[in-house]
What does this fold into?
Amino acid sequence: MKPLTGRSASAISELVRDVVDRPFRARQVALWVLQRNARSFDEMTDLPKALRRELARRFSLHEPEMAEVVASLDGSRKYLLRLADGTTVEAVSMPEGQKVTLCLSSQSGCAVGCTFCVTGALGAGRNLTPEEIVGQYRLMVRDLGGDVERVNIVFMGMGEPLLNTTHLGTALEALMETVSPKRITVSTAGILPGIRWLAGLPRRPLLAVSLNAPDQERREAIMPITRRYPLPDLMAALRAFPLERGRRITFEYVLIRGLNDAPEDAGALARLLRGIPSKVNVIPLNEDPDHLPGLRRPDDGTIDRFAARIRDEGLTVTVRRSRGSDVAAACGQLKGRQASRSATADHCLPAASPSRR
Ligand code: SAH
Ligand code: SF4
It folds into this structure.
C-alpha cells in the first residue's frame, strides 16, 4: 500500500488521481493529510464513503508508532518511536510559549561516526522513509494538542540528513506545505554532495553545519568524515552556498573539555568563518560515560570565555543550554538507554538561548 503521508499536495493528487471521481476530491484528500493531519481515511468525512473505502484499500497514512514518551519538567517531550520493521528512532519537542521546536531524525543510526556522538557510537542505521520522517512531525503536532502557533523543525535528531537526500527531499516537500522553509533547519556534518544538493533546491530550508573544531587536524580526530570532505573544501562550498537575504548559516560547535575549548580555538573559529553570514551555536558536550568514555563538558567559566571570545570577534553566538536533562531528553539517549540500560547523551539539543554575559 502506498503511503500518502510524507508526500506533498501535488504528489498526493497525482497518487489518488485514478481513484477520485473529480479533481477537487484529490485536493480534499491532500488537505486531510497535510493540514488536518488525519490518521485514517474514515476521518475524511466530506468524502463519499465508497471513496474513503477505496482510498483505504489502496493507500496508507503510515507513520511511526509511539513507543515511549518522556516529559521533562521544562515542558520538552522526548519520543521513542517504533518503525514498522521494529527499528526505533527518537524525536523531541521543545515548546517555548506558543512556539515549538521539533527535532526530527533522518536515519535510525549514523555511519559518520563522530567520536562525541551517541548516535555515532550506536553505529549505522537505515535511511528513514519520507512517511517516517514526516510521521515524527505529525505525531508530535497531534500530541501537542494543536495549540501551537508556530512550529520550527530541526533535523538534529538521529542520523545524517544529507546522506538521505532522496527521502529528505520528498519529506521536505511535504513539510513545506505547512511549515515555511525559513523555519526548517537541516543540520549536517559536512557532506559536500549533500550540501550541493541542498544549494540546488528551488525552496531551500536553513542550513546548519556541525563544525566542532577550528582546524583540519582536530576536526579529523573527532569527525572522521573530515578526511573524505576536508575542511577547506567544506568552507569553500559554504562560501558558495546561496543565501536569501537575511539568512545565515548556523555553525554548531560541540564544546569538549581540553579538546576544542581554548579561547585561541574560538579565535581560529572566527577567522575560519570570516566573510560567511553566520551564527555560532556553542553546545557544551552532553556527557555519556557509557558511550563516550573520557569525554567531558568544559566548566561554565570555560564555556563563557569561549562564547565571549567569539562575540568579541564580532560574531553572533548562542550557548545552548541542554533542556530536559532530567529525563535524559536529548536525541540518542532513549535509544542509547535501551541499548545499554543506561541513560546516554545526545543529539537533539533544545532551542538556542542567548549566551550569558
Ligand atoms: N548528523 C547531523 C545532525 C544530527 S547531530 C549533524 O551532525 O549535524 C545534531 C547535533 O548534535 C550536531 O551539531 C552534533 O554536533 C550534536 N551532538 C552530537 N553529539 C553530541 C553530544 N554528545 N553533546 C552535544 N552535542 C552533540
Ligand atoms: Fe552522525 Fe551527526 Fe552524530 Fe556525527 S554528530 S555521528 S554526523 S548524527
